[in-house]
Amino acid sequence: MLFSMLKEKLEKLAPKNLEFSDETYGLQFGSLMKDQNLHNIAISLECDKEVIMKARKLKSHIIISHHGLTDQSMTYFNDGIYNEIKLLSLSDIKLFVIHRPWHNAKGGISDNLAKQAGINIEGTFRISKNERTYSLGRFGFPYQENTSVESICTTLKRNLRLSFIQIAGNPKKTVKKVLVKGGTGIESRHFIDIIRAGCNTIISGEFTYQEAQIAKKMDLNLIAASHYSSEKHGMENLQKILSLEFPRDNFYFIETAEPVLII
């Protein structure tokens, strides 16, 4: 499989227009002039030194990562990022960052988080601002009627093997329409649009203290399943999708450690 074929498939699975931010998406490191033949492809949540070394052992010439080396300009970076860039260069490894569009894509991070929570996804949640349409995540409904916030959390803890779940709201409240967004949560400035659309619950990877306060006043339930755990399964599913699409090539998921420790 040529790199151009893989790039085309990734851009079809998670098109950039599914995310309205200016964060990194696409080829962050490597040459577009060299359309090399790929047989071993590494997929990971992060791209750090350990992931690059494992990709090198797998004889992979590309890493598909959810998070890039940095979400800032590549003009200035610290020694850690410099060493990772140097290692990628020495190993002749490209880095393709799929990032936030994979949150909102069908079969992506949010869909997988919904599956772990027992939510049936019905579509993409879109809002219109300043003559532009934005995707905030995916929306759906619980598999079973009269499901409580507490029940959703119990399901998430079991399926994601978590020791705790964060909740802002009433655990006994019945979950109606749900907005699901893995990783970073939904900013409070969007809460009114979400409530107007009939949602009373948001499932994401995290939320801030301020967002919890605002949600409580607006009778909106927030559920946080950890940034890392909410994204990991979506990247594992990308590996399965690509393996089926390109059966002659090898796709390896390289697991990384949870960076936030609970002690």
Structure report:
The chain contains 9 helices and 11 strands. It is an alpha/beta fold and 263 residues long. Strands 5-6-8-9-10-7 form a 6-stranded mixed beta sheet. Strands 1-4-3-2-11 form a 5-stranded mixed beta sheet, with helices on both faces. β5 (119-129) and β6 form a beta hairpin. It is elongated, with a radius of gyration of 19 Å. The mean pLDDT is 91.
Describe the secondary-structure layout.
Elements lengths: L2 H11 L12 E4 L10 E5 L4 H9 L4 E4 L13 H12 L3 E4 L3 H4 L4 H9 L1 E11 L2 E11 L6 H12 L5 E3 L8 E5 L9 H6 L2 E6 L4 H9 L3 E4 L2 H19 L4 E5 L9
Parallel strand pairs: 2-3, 2-11, 3-4, 8-9, 9-10
Antiparallel strand pairs: 1-4, 5-6, 6-8, 7-10
Sum this structure up briefly:
By secondary structure, the chain is an alpha/beta fold. The protein is built from nine helices and eleven strands.
- Measured as a percent range, the helix fraction is 25-40%
Strand percent estimate: 15-25%
Neighbour order of strands in the largest sheet: 5-6-8-9-10-7
The major beta sheet can be summarized as:
6 strands, mixed
What is the straight-line distance between the termini? 45 Å
Briefly note the structural class of the backbone: alpha/beta
**Uncertain ranges:** none
Determine Rg (CA atoms, Å). Answer: 19 Å
Coarse morphology: elongated
Number of helices: 9
Total beta strand runs: 11
Oligomer: single chain
Mean pLDDT, nearest integer? 91
| SSE topology string | HEEHEHEHHEEHEEHEHEHE
